[in-house]
Amino acid sequence: MTDTSLDFRVTREDLTRFMQAALVAAGANQASADAVSRALVTASRMGTDSHGLRLLPHYLKALNGGRINGAPNMVFHQRLAATGFLDADDGLGHLAGFTAIEHAMAMASEVGMGAVAVGNSSHFGAAGCYALAAAERGYLGMAFCNSDPFVLLHDGAKPFHGTNPIAFAAPVEGGAPYLLDMATSSIPWNRVQQFGAIGRELPDQVAADAAGKVSRVPGEIEALLPLGGSSFGFKGAGLAGMVEILSSVLSGMQHGFKLLPMGGPDMATPRGVGHFFLAMKPDAFVEEGTFARGLAEYLADLRAQPATPDARVMAPGDREWRCQAQRDADGIPLDSANQSAYAEIAKQYQLAPLSRLD
Amino acid sequence: MTDTSLDFRVTREDLTRFMQAALVAAGANQASADAVSRALVTASRMGTDSHGLRLLPHYLKALNGGRINGAPNMVFHQRLAATGFLDADDGLGHLAGFTAIEHAMAMASEVGMGAVAVGNSSHFGAAGCYALAAAERGYLGMAFCNSDPFVLLHDGAKPFHGTNPIAFAAPVEGGAPYLLDMATSSIPWNRVQQFGAIGRELPDQVAADAAGKVSRVPGEIEALLPLGGSSFGFKGAGLAGMVEILSSVLSGMQHGFKLLPMGGPDMATPRGVGHFFLAMKPDAFVEEGTFARGLAEYLADLRAQPATPDARVMAPGDREWRCQAQRDADGIPLDSANQSAYAEIAKQYQLAPLSRLD
């Protein structure tokens, strides 16, 4: 959730500087530090606070614990003209992600599309960053990732899938890309906590207690429902399974149910996260220019649709681009928890602290 | 919904014979009749009754009206090594679908993956049939299609997207494929009608009245909500948009909002439906055999998960394969509406009627 009332705000340049210094101090090489700061700052600018600057302390802990290799030797194995495997050497998932989508785009420029399965990786932040990286260069991009279990199967009583996200981005001529980045769960875990913090009941059909029974009481929640809730959760669960198959089965990794928890306590053992990236050349199917014209027309028609009272119809990404413009102008806010965490990091690594904007 | 209490049942061979004869009588060539009967019989065997034998009268009407070309000259334009466009020449979408996924598999066998955008097509039945056709030959398959507007945007007051399905299938060694075939709406349209017929309230957050206001009264429903309902419908709407971009924008067709209604009244004007198909070789990323082993392990772990009381955890497709085994043994049921429709067709085209199983 965007909270622009927070009065501790920083520039993205200063945030990038700080993140990179901290990551390098914790043992990351420059390429890894560049990739992590690029992904986290992208997410924070767009208002995806759950996957933005909040994650820096986690990555530092994983580097310090030895779970993540700060100076990996990532090797790309091209298998066929449109497919390959990136061994991420237990490095930061962000470097794996940006590296893999580059290889996918290189293949797409030759044969129309390209896909890269990534293995021996780690948490990569927001999936949307890598789809977006493709769209910014004129390609359709897709990104998928598995994660440790938080989400029930349809009719299941115990978490099995992770929030297994799907990201899809398409380039828009003269405008910001179409950008969908969604978990295949009904609700994000941190939204459940937010409802709890303000004492509100959850929407129906989005989360369950320890027995797998649907509950609207934040304090009882032990698992998330798949997208579609009790009646149609087979859709979310099936999408999560598709993401799992693409991310871990294609790459030869363990599937998400067997992943060590992201949050620890074990911060020493590599997790072996899998990702999957796909890039397509928009003009690889019909005449050049057709795609750009068609997408512009589709988006214009979409944005012209009538909305319900007090609402507004938006294309995926519209909310994020608006937030980005605002935060680029006013700065990126840090809530009090993040202010403390970043002050602590500055002390620990003897870094110049973030400069608070006036 | 599977209704095995129906006592009018036919063999799939007889159903195929009847469908093909009717389609040929209405002007379809043998290749088109083969493709339609293959798709409809596949769906009916699996219990996907909304996309099975029920659709035959519709296709006959569209052939008779001239909207659909029964003897199309479908031309495949290979653009790059992994991508191409199939011009379906206003023929039956089923022939376009099976033709396109064949081309996608041929490219995948060479370069690891292949995708085909299809234009100038028509309704193709169940998207799952084409993903399944890939999985039956050892490929991962995906299928997407746009359709005329029934589904609201997130916060939208008027239908904009079609039910825009996503199908994904993966081959399972020695077993039936993983098969996900889902609309990106919250609920299928015919399910709303079924609730109405038995006087039941709809689940919350799945459908809306003419003003776009969520309603649980089947008789008031004028639009479906995107998957995710009022709170998280941006997910379903974003997925529908992804399907739209892949199906119509990549293929240079009009997007779904501008499609003529499938149900008429105009049965003379071609609709220009778009589809998108993708095939991937499972062993195009890591060592041969890794994918098969990993998928078997994932599915075994999934099926061993505990379920909520009176429920059972299933993988996508499990319900369908069970129904298929039962209907292959006992016959495919026709409800009274379909019995009348098929008797009418037999009369109209002077065909031997379906043989009712004892």
Automatic annotation (TrEMBL), chains A, B:
Keywords: Oxidoreductase. SUPFAM superfamilies: L-sulfolactate dehydrogenase-like (SSF89733). It comes from the Bacteria. Signal peptide: none annotated. GO terms for molecular function: oxidoreductase activity. Belongs to the LDH2/MDH2 oxidoreductase family. This is Ldh family oxidoreductase. The lineage of its organism: Bacteria, Pseudomonadati, Pseudomonadota, Gammaproteobacteria, Oceanospirillales.
